[in-house]
Design goal:
The chain has one domain: Beta Barrel (Thrombin, subunit H), CATH 2.40.10. 0% of the residues lie in helices and 59% in strands. The protein has no helices and eleven strands. The model has no long low-confidence stretch (mean pLDDT 93). This is Head-tail adaptor protein.
């Protein structure tokens, strides 16, 4: 398995994973700090429900990073909400396996 090379992971993200909803609003797990590559580009994507939405930033992380939809992520001094998270696995091909997270 090939993963993203460490020299690409130039940014740091703090993830508060979404755990669910309560009577008082969203519930988040404890914050986790990970190395990542942040791509600040506005683009049209599909969220976890299949709706077309505008993403302001895409974050690339190492495989196994847990960042479900609805999580809060702080990167480059900005806190945003995860629209969708995708596991990119080349299935043994020589491509870099990673987690791609699109955020508002």
């Amino acid at each position: 398995m090939t993963t993203l090379p460490g020299w690409l992971l130039r940014h740091t993200a703090v993830i508060k994973p979404f755990e669910g909803d309560s009577a008082y609003g969203p519930v988040y797990g404890p914050p986790v700090t990970v190395k990542c590559l942040a791509d600040d580009e506005r683009r049209m994507v599909r969220d976890d429900k299949g709706l077309e939405v505008v993403s302001e930033i895409t974050i690339y992380m190492l495989p196994g990073t847990r960042c479900p939809s609805g999580s809060q992520v702080t990167v480059n001094g900005r806190t945003t909400t995860v629209l969708a998270s995708y596991t990119r696995d080349g299935g043994g091909l020589p491509t870099p396996d990673h987690v791609e997270v699109v955020c508002q």
